[in-house]
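Most newcomers find our protein records easier to grasp once they have seen one. Read left to right, the backbone structure tokens trace the chain's path through space. Nothing more is needed to start thinking about how sequence determines fold. An example says more than a description, so a record of this kind follows:
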Amino acid sequence: MPDIVVLGKPDFIIGFELAGIKDIIIADDKTLGTKLSEALKNKGIGILVMHKADVEALPQRLQNSFDSSVRPVTVMVSEETTSDDRLRKQIKKAIGVDVWNKE
């Protein structure tokens, strides 16, 4: 079974560790891009979770790689409760149907 991996800063990943996620990649501002690139190439990762602020701080090229990844599936989480167009696009890409149709 593919692994669920959380990539981010220590203050972000601690909650996932407490929830039982064992596959953690700790990164800081300097290593975040490199570690993301490595994780996106790792075929053992099924789902890659990152904080929205960390993804948005990356260079556009890496943001595009994060958004377009099919395997691993990439998930961005944040404290915001607003709907996120990125999530809508990811769902549409994954299943081929826009279940979040705004019309």
About this structure: Residues 3-95 form a domain with the Rossmann fold fold (CATH 3.40.50.10580).
